[in-house]
Amino acid sequence: MTGPDMTAGTAVPAALAEIIDDFAAVEGQDKLRLLLEFSQELPPLPAELEEAAMEPVPECQSPLFLSVDDSDPGHVVLHFSSPPEAPTTRGFASILHQGLNGESAAAILAVPDDFYSTLGLAEVVSPLRLRGLSAMLTRIKRRLRATA
Asked: For residues 40 and 132, is the Cβ–Cβ distance under 8 A?
């Protein structure tokens, strides 16, 4: 199911719903091409943020680091760092960045843990790689719950 109401009783932010719809509109290898497009759109880290100060996500097959700034729970700022030679991981990070950055902590916590299944990437990306996407969201949520 696509759109803001993925499953009964749960909603995803509008930006993430739009991404889910984009993936629903393409089939097969076009899903992989779309993921690679997202990988090229991951913004660089701001100058004041160093990768060494970020949380690693060891569940990802490629190096990935994230930062969750929830100093304003109404406007959570997410940053991700992953090398260009890891396009799948960068693509996942970019999906989360574009879909969740700037949202409220409550909206992010309401995103279903398995929302990525609606992207239809299981046919073109290994389950191990998909677990990396799940781990990113889990770590973001864990951080938000710890500071709530």
From this structure: no
Full residue range of the structural domain in which residue 138 is found: 14-146
Token pair, residue 97, equals 């960045």
What is the tally of structural domains in the chain?
A: 1
What pTM did the predictor assign?
Answer: 0.91
Enumerate residues 6+ apart whose C-beta is below 8 A from 127: none
Q: What is the CATH number of the domain that holds 22?
A: 3.90.1010.10
Residue type, 49: L
Residue 60 lies in a domain: yes
Burial class (CB in 10 A: 0-12, 13-18, 19+), 55: middle
Q: Which SS3 state, helix, strand or coil, does residue 80 take? A: strand
Could you read off the pLDDT of 87-140 as tens digits, one per residue?
999 999 999 999 999 999 999 999 999 999 999 999 889 888 889 999 999 999
What is the maximum span of the chain, computed from C-alpha positions, in angstroms?
Answer: 41
Bridge partner list, 78: 68
> How many CB atoms sit inside 10 A of residue 54's CB?
17
Report residue 143 as tokens: 């951080």
In a domain, 94, yes or no: yes
